[in-house]
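Figure 2 data, in text form.
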Amino acid sequence: MLNIVNLLLGQPFWIVTKIIYLGFDDNFAAWFSSMLLAIAGVLAHEASVTAKRCVGSGHVYLLMFSLLLFTMSADEVARIHETVGEFLSTIASNGDTYEAKNSGWVLVGGPIVLIVFSIAFYLLKPHLFLVKGTTTLLGLGFTSIFLGGVLLESAVNLFDESTPRWIWDTQIIVEETLEMIGTLLICLSLVRWRDGVAEKSSESQS
């Protein structure tokens, strides 16, 4: 919301833009996004502990999911996938343009993300069915992150120097917002599953 207001006002204060702009990797916005993913990783670990104690299965997959989320959290501030994308573009000799620097990430990283998310969803789905609604929330979370982090991020390949600045800014805001919404949906899914399983286990023992 702050980014939208700042954009509508024409980004009048550089220091405010520097702190909250979603297109930077070294400010509060990047830190906040990274922390959301880290919180999701903690919740996945808690769900793993709950699964081991109350269900007896699925805890290994949830632990692996936790590690994936922590890796995504680190990537948010370490720019791992951007760096790899630039390296792949250099190898492919696509030139020195911004478009070329993103083609490596879009063409190579995009399918990898889709495969990883699909495998994670496939492995977790049978266990998440224990609590109604958690599978849907997880699927929506994955979809939102993929739409923002891969599909919308690839839209910059359609832009050039003549593209108005507000279009670049809008693309970045929508992209990063979708990623954050996706992470929040994953958090909600894990909290609902953890609490639901614990409640069912408590009821069965009483």
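Caption note: The mean pLDDT is 81.
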